[in-house]
Amino acid sequence: MRLLLAAILSLTAITASAQPAATPVLPPPPPPGYIPGAHLDATLFLSPAPLAEGTVQAADMSEVKAAQAFKGSARWIQAQSDDDLSPFTAFAPVLGPAFSRAAAPRTGALFDRLFTDVTSLTAPAKIKFNRPRPPLVDPTIETCKPLEITKSYPSGHATRGWLMALVLSEMVPEKANALLARGRDYGDSRVICAEHFPSDVQAGRLIGAAVFAAAKADPAFERDFRAARTELRAALKL
Question: Domains in the chain, start-ordered, CATH in brackets?
Answer without folding.
Answer: 53-235 (1.20.144.10)
